[in-house]
Amino acid sequence: MDSYLHTVDSDWYRQRVSGALICVLAAFLILLVRLYYLQVVEGPEFRRQSQNNCVRLEDIPPARGLIFDRDGVLLVENRPCFNISIVPREAKNPKGVVHKLAELLDVAPEPLFARLAEVRGVRSFKPVLLRRDVSRDVVAIIEAYKLDLPGIVITVEPTRHYLEGKRASHLVGYLGEISREELKSGCFPDNRIRDFIGRFGVEKAYEPYFHGRRGEQRIEVNALGQLTRVLKTEEATPGNNIYLTLDFRLQRKAEALLSGKVGAAVAMDPSNGHILAMASSPAFDPNVFVEGMTYEAWNDLASNRFRPMENKAIQGQYPPASTYKIVTAIAGLEEGVITEHTRVFCPGYYRYGNRTFRCWKRGGHGFMKITDALVESCDVFFYQVGEKLGVDRLAGYAKACGLGLPTGVDLDKEAKGLVPTSWWKLGRMGVPWQGGETLSVAIGQGFDLVTPIQMLSLISAVANGGIRYKPLVVRRIESSDGSLVKKEVPVPLGRLSVSDKTLEIVKRSLMDAVNKPRGTGWIARIPGIDVAGKTGTAQVVGMKEDNKENPVESKHLHLRDHAWFIAFAPAEEPRVAVAVLIEHGGHGSTAAGPIAREMIKTYLGN
After folding, report:
1. Which of 222, 505, 551, 560 is 20 to 30 A from 158, alpha carbon to alpha carbon?
2. Which of the four pLDDT bands, split at 50, 70 and 90, describes residue 193?
């Protein structure tokens, strides 16, 4: 019996041991199969995921090219910009991390959540920009709470900084974020979402030159997303540097002279078309577009009745007033309706049909020749010249002088002005041209509209012997290492339709208009420098016979006349031409003349 029990116990023990061994072997077999599956079958995929977790590819945006004036004075540079981004995969719970970040920075979390939502579907190991251009204090806070903010990274990139703020803002321009539509257009192949591109001025016109080539950096990070080592770096190539034609000393002076006024002052080298100054008032600070502008701030700029976002030098359109008499004089002399010796009597008015057209000088100028009429700006003389020419012949000379057409300056949204003809009025208004309207056009009133840069182009052509040049705002473009990429050369647009004799009469008259006491530009004279110029006072509202209030000196600003002055100097060997327009400034001689005089003194005194 004992033997039987012993045998049974042994069998039961062996069965238990065998069962245990089978379970152990089965477990090991399962582990081996699983290990084989993970290492061999799924190995490549897990290896890829492991590399993605520890290796990060970081974009290196290129530094935008710098902007200098003609003498190498730095106007626009790049400063370091600290950005906060999140890598969703490393954050594990991105929304929770973003909420914690918002608490630490004491900001509303909704805008940050919106940034996350914008890039939904993008690979989770790619950084998502949450806040741009934060202060160093914010960077310090994030670094202090790094362990509580998994996936949050701080990146540094160059951002635009306009050293002179508002100065030359209309010429230099500003930047804005690129839109998704622009990215999809294919016109910006090397740009990414959140990049900034030129939106106005030179920044926009020369965008392809400013934008360099992107680089990239492959780095290794630990489980906290902290950098452990740099594996590979391909440096970004900076954009090209641009040297403007601008003389910044003259630019500062022009803007100081326009302070508190609404208008424009622009200067050019008559020999090549180089823009030496381009001031438009009021101005704006382009830095606010880079730093981030609120809707309210933009609305304030856009709704400002003085239009600070408008470059009045190329976009403002105004009646040319008496500056247009240069065109009427050229047309009259070239067409033979008058000669240098033709005399016209000015009693202070001219009757045409049942209307009376008045001269600015109520008592009249007496007998006038063309030289006298330009010097004293006699309206009656030019009424009669315009009547003999007719509007269509007058328009032909105006267009040949570059009016009614864009000058071609490399800046966005240049206005073309308006040179009226009989066919234009019939097509536009459905009524025929009236003869009395020609009289108004002949003295730069009526339908005539010009821009300050057009009048600058005209007076420059008179100064240099009749050649109209394309206005140039860029002198040369250099790469970041200083090698020449492009040099702008003068571009002649054509010649004025004028003989040397006519041009000599006009130039002599313009010089007398400034340097003789009876000249309307007497206030602009400069001892030791022969200045030649022409004033203009453009009516904003018509003046009736019984009107007691003179629009020139009205207490209501919007009723006052616009003030013009165009000039060049020295008269015999011109080095600078200037056009000044002051909106509702009153008389051209008193409001615009002194500004032109000081600009000329500043430039020629350099």
Report:
1. 222
2. confident
Q: Phi and psi for 576 in degrees, rounded to 5?
A: -150, 140
Exactly one of 169, 271, 281, 322 is catalytic; name it.
Answer: 322
* Residue whose C-alpha is closest to residue 472's, from 458, 482, 487: 487
| Among 435, 336, 441, 453, residue whose Cα is nearest residue 395 | 441
**Residue 65 corresponds to which tokens in the numbers above?**
């090219």
* Residue 8 pLDDT greater than 70, yes or no: no
Assess whether 259 carries a catalytic annotation.
no
Q: What pLDDT score does 277 carry?
A: 98
Label each residue of 238-296 as H, E or C: CCCEEEECCCHHHHHHHHHHHCCCCEEEEEECCCCCEEEEEEEECCCCCHHHHHCCCHH
Amino acid 297 reads: A
Q: What is the pLDDT of residues 571-598, one digit of tens each?
A: 999 999 999 999 998 887 899 999 999 9
Contact in structure between 342 and 370 (CB atoms under 8 Å): yes
- Rounded to 10°, the helix 94-105/110-118 angle is 140
The structural domains of the chain, ordered by start, are 56-242 (3.90.1310.10), 248-291+313-604 (3.40.710.10)
The three-state secondary structure class of 222 is coil
pLDDT tier at 87, thresholds 50, 70, 90: confident
Please provide residue 199's backbone torsions phi and psi, each rounded to the nearest 5 degrees.
-115, -15
Looking at residue 149, the DSSP 8-state letter turns out to be S
Q: What pairing do the DSSP bridges indicate for beta strands 355-358 and 128-134? A: unpaired
Dihedral angle computed from the Cα positions of residues 510, 512, 517 and 520, in that order, rounded to the nearest 10 degrees: -10
State the residue for tokens 């602009």. 524
For residue 24, CA distances in Å to 14, 17, 21, 255 come to 15, 10, 5, 90
Q: 328 pLDDT band (50/70/90 cuts)?
A: very high
Q: Are strands 241-244 and 67-68 parallel, antiparallel or unpaired?
A: parallel
Q: Are 171 and 471 in contact (CB under 8 A)?
A: no
Q: Name the average pLDDT for the chain.
A: 88
Cα dihedral 97/102/105/108 (nearest 10): 170
pTM of the predicted model, to two decimals? 0.84
Q: Does the pLDDT of residue 261 top 80, yes or no? A: yes
How many Å apart are CA 550 and CA 553, to the nearest integer? 6
pLDDT confidence of residue 49: 52
- Give the residues across from 418 on adjacent strands: 449
CB atoms within 10 A of CB 297: 12
Q: Determine how many CB atoms are found less than 10 A away from the CB of residue 606.
A: 12
Q: Give the three-state DSSP class for 15.
A: helix
Distance CA 535, CA 322 (A): 6
Burial of 229 (0-12, 13-18, 19+ CB in 10 A): exposed
